[in-house]
Amino acid sequence: MSGPPAQRRALVIGSQCAARPRLGFLPELAGELCEVLTDPTLGGCAPALPDRPAGGLLQDPTREEVLDALDEAFRAADRAGATLLIALLGHGVARGDDFYYLTVDAPGRGNYRRDVHLSHHLKEALSDAADLDGLIVLLDTCHAGVAAQQAATGWGEVGLGRDVRRYELLSASADGPAYNGDFTRTLIEVLRRGVPAAGSTVDARDLRAPLLQGAAAQRPQRVTVDGGGWAQDGDQGLWLAHNAALRDPDDDATGLAALDRVTELVTFLQPTPTLDALVAAVRTHRCVVVTGPRGSGKSTLAAALTRPAAGRGHVPDALVHAIAFAAGGSTLAILTAALAGQLAGTVPGYTAAARAYEAALDPAEQQGLPALARRVIGPLGRLSPPGPVRLVIDALDELPETTQQAVRAAVITALEPSPHGVHRQQPPGAEAGVGFVLTARPAAARPPGAYQVPVDQPGDDVITAYFAQRGVRTEFHRRLVRQAGVADRTRTCSPSRPSGQGSSQSSCSPAPARAHRAVRGGTARRRRG
Fold this sequence. Notes:
Layout: E1 8-15, H1 28-38, E2 46-47, E3 57-59, H2 63-80, E4 83-95, E5 98-102, H3 118-128, E6 134-140, H4 144-154, E7 167-171, H5 182-193, E8 201-202, H6 208-214, E9 221-224, E10 241-242, H7 249-266, H8 273-284, E11 287-291, H9 298-305, H10 308-311, E12 322-325, H11 332-346, H12 350-360, H13 363-368, H14 371-380, E13 389-394, H15 401-415, E14 434-440, E15 451-454, H16 460-470, H17 477-490, H18 510-519
Parallel strand pairs: 1-2, 1-3, 1-4, 4-6, 6-7, 11-14, 11-15, 12-13, 13-14
Antiparallel strand pairs: 4-5, 7-9, 8-10
């Protein structure tokens, strides 16, 4: 998903050091932490290095690779006005008052030319990032508390001093050893299960008791922009994860299933003018309906709106916040669960608002309000997000007729300029913050006033780019593009997996037909065979 309006990005670095004993918890623990931080229902972070194959994870890098990754992550987050979360796991060494992170090629003696002088580098990068929304550093190494002390004493001029910045640093240890990744294991465990006594998010203050128990021998440290130490309030905007203790596990499972479907659809995505037209319409109109025949690419267009990285600059961040894929057996409760599970990770405060909204309903209202209004539209009306919260419902016309009617009724009610919105709890005007993108075949009934975006056939250049991305040899491109055009005219071929390169192809062979169907809606995607 695209994430919350206030963007968050994560970079996790895990490294052995050839000059030091091997650490048994790497690389697995670094990968596990990255999964938690980039889970839209937990950490809610996008990968800090989206143009790299590993995204937000760097394993066993050299010193130069670490420095390049840190610089790139800071620059990208600064351009986006995002919060940057950096975690480093591995070996560390203190030399006097200086802390060094040890990479795979480090001599391990604390040399500023050959080891990563971490706190100094972070201070300089933070100072140069004028538009960075905030910085969180998690450091799981031996002697990490020396880095914390350097941050507390040396970062003042980029904290509350000359260059105001928001930052927080958590270290696994004081000036001593750290053991077996206990700091990171405890952190992952807490973020996954949540903290019942916390609010809608979990921040460093909620970690004090678990860390002092789970990594007691290490004496974990905390430094904040407002003075450091566990007793300080810190900046609540520098949260670590959405509070899993407040979520419904069934919503999570349904929401994650929808995100898996998104991943399948946007693989080999090829942006086209149709996608650009859809993005422009979504930004302008509160209700947009994408129309086209079955198999024309409507679902892939809808999925592309939720995955800006796949759109390669064609889809802005935080354009939409949740998507539900309808099927013949889908109920309103299933669609609602998919949306709610994702909103818990993309809209700050949604989970708490949903609980408060439900608690304020009397028994008759709880039974009478449709699930979509009760669990999604109503709670969103209690919030004041900085921009519209947009929901996507794909294949509306595939639903049973009664469910179609219920969805359309909920959408129409949410879009009405009523002073009461969907329910008396919803403040006047709050419903204006909810928008919808629906997909359906052309003959399907649409909400009144909905803006229509028809799916157009992609050009030859898009189909050619698709074949290039799939690794099809260049000499076959023109022939396959021509065959894809024949498939469009005849509409006789069904999509399937492409045959091998160099094989004989007819005008209705699997590869051109599949390519045409995959990119027709402005996208290219992988289908299951």
